[in-house]
Amino acid sequence: MFKVILFFLLLYFLFRFLFRVLIPALLMRKLRKMSSEMNGGERSNASGGQKEGKVTITYKPTDNSGKDKSKEGEYVDFEEVD
């Protein structure tokens, strides 16, 4: 019985150590990685073909000439009934 209690106490302290030391270290590593990806993305965009602050809009017209008008339905004027 003493060995079982000792085993669970050791297991408890091991998990406690892992959550206090290992988990925050892994989270900090992930945060640094995300931060460097964000900063790297800004650098690659700034060194690209466009200057910072320049806005370009590309317009792609839709072809509505082939649209079937019969699927739209028909306008029906209505009157209120008292």
Automatic annotation (TrEMBL):
Region of interest called Disordered, as start-end residue ranges on this chain: 36-82
Ranges annotated as biased composition (Basic and acidic residues): 65-74
Polar residues bias: start-end ranges: 36-48
Pfam families: DUF4834 (PF16118)
Record-annotated membrane-spanning stretches: 6-28
Magnesium in keyword set: no
Highest taxon above the source species: Bacteria
InterPro entries recorded: DUF4834
Keyword Secreted: no
Sorted UniProt keywords: Membrane, Transmembrane, Transmembrane helix
Name recorded for this polypeptide: DUF4834 family protein
Organism: Xiashengella succiniciproducens
